Amino acid sequence: MKISIAQTRPIKGDIAANIEKHLILAEIAASYKANAIFFPELSLTGYWAELAIVLATNQDDTRLDVLQKLSDQKNITIGTGLPTRTNTGLRISMIIVQPNKNRLTYSKQLLFVDELPIFEKGDSQIILTIGNQKLAPAICYESLQSVHSATASNMGAEIYMASVAKTTQGIEKALSQYAEIAKKYAMPVFMSNCLGECDNFVGCGKSAVWNKQGQLVGQLDDETEGLIIFDTETEEVIKHSL
Hints:
This protein has helices spanning 15-31, 49-55, 65-74, 146-154, 168-185, and strands at 2-7, 36-38, 77-85, 90-97, 104-107, 128-130, 133-139, 159-163, 189-192, 195-197, 202-204, 208-210, 216-219, 226-231, 237-241. The mean pLDDT is 97. It is 25% helix and 30% strand. It has a single domain (2-241), classed as 4-Layer Sandwich (Nitrilase/N-carbamoyl-D-aminoacid amidohydrolase), CATH 3.60.110.10. By secondary structure, it is an alpha/beta fold. It has a 7-stranded mixed beta sheet with strand order 5-4-3-2-1-14-15.
């Protein structure tokens, strides 16, 4: 199975423009026969916590219909970042668009201290079945908390997908921890990071993939938008820059 991660530079608060970039990258991933593509944390708005109050929506937002159409046509799952609104508050979420299925929402369960005044915690882990493998989504801070990956493994996850918004300092710490997760649970780990200005930091890219032995097998740079596509069976790595 082929899984793709995207590295993007979101336009602040411009959901329509960011959807267009998602469509371009998802089309490219599909051209390489990828079964799925995942984007960075809050990829459709950029990571701007206070903007989430205005921009929060839900998985049924009609602006996502173009992603659904592409997913159906190309048979590709698309995981995209969006703030969502519930009856009780705001969440940092991943909207999962699946071919010819209802959309799913996964919300960040473990929040960084700076997020607590604005967002509420998600209440459950989901496991996606893509092809013949089970994938656990994770969103940034929680992916570096050992309880999260342990829970995912106990639930049968065979692939760990971290959607993040990280600085250079944050990435340096993450690189070793994701390698350890991959090795400990014998599952490939994917990290999709953003580029450019965010709330009070700058996303540094360096999106990466580790194989089940914990070896870093593919990584993008700190300035270029693009894709990594990893075949979980053959371990072939393809990079595509925009």
